[in-house]
Structures are given as C-alpha cells and as structure tokens.
UniProtKB/TrEMBL annotation:
Cross-referenced InterPro entries: DUF1249
Taxonomy, superkingdom: Bacteria
Protein name: DUF1249 domain-containing protein
Database matches in Pfam families: DUF1249 (PF06853)
Amino acid sequence: MDLYERNYMMMRCLVPVMPVTGFDGVSRMDGATDLHLRVSERFRFTSEVMLTYRFERDGEIVCEPDLRVRVYHDARLAEVMTAHPRHAPAFDLEGDAAGGRVCERWRVNRFLFKWLGYCLRQGHGFRPPPPGG
C-alpha cells in the first residue's frame, strides 16, 4: 500500500486539481518529451486518467508507455489498472480475474512511481487555468 500512497502523492504533484471528465492536456517542457493526460472518468471518490508520451512512428501515433491509472481520492491511493509499456507484455488488472499476477502488479506500479518522479523532475505538471483565463 505504501507504493500506492506514494503514487497518489506524486500524481497530486503532477495534477494538483483533477480536471473534469474528457480533459485532454499536454505538458510541454523544453528539452523533454510532451506528457499527455486524459481524464476518462471523474467521480467524487475516484478518477481514471490515461498518462502517456506520444510518438510518431511510420506515420502513425504510438503511445508509450500507455498507462490507465485509477486515483482513489478518499483513500489517497493511485494504482495502475492497465499498462502497455514498451518491450513488455500488456498489463490489465481488471482482466486478471484470478488476481495471481502480484509481481507484475507491483512492477507496473513501481514503474509508475519512477516515471512520475522523472516527469516531476523535468518540471511537468497539469495546473488549472488561472481564474478568468
């Protein structure tokens, strides 16, 4: 649970105020890859966001890594629900009915922890627009 709590704290640094459902944002920093955030669900106690980089490869847009993260506002936790990391098999927590993939679950959430730290060190963030702007 400590890892999920840390992921939540870092998500809050990256996204201090959770935008509404359907928000599509891009954080651009000089010398860094653009970070894309999409809010797919926003409820009182939970939100789901997609977090990724987007690259063009052979004329197509490729999202890597492509993470769907559930943020539990009440419990102050953030957990990867699905992941499509580069050079690794896809991870789908909801598709794993038996729940027997504990090691993969830890590994993909550890990846989120490291990636969020990297993004924050680069200065990425999704801030609400200023009032009246």
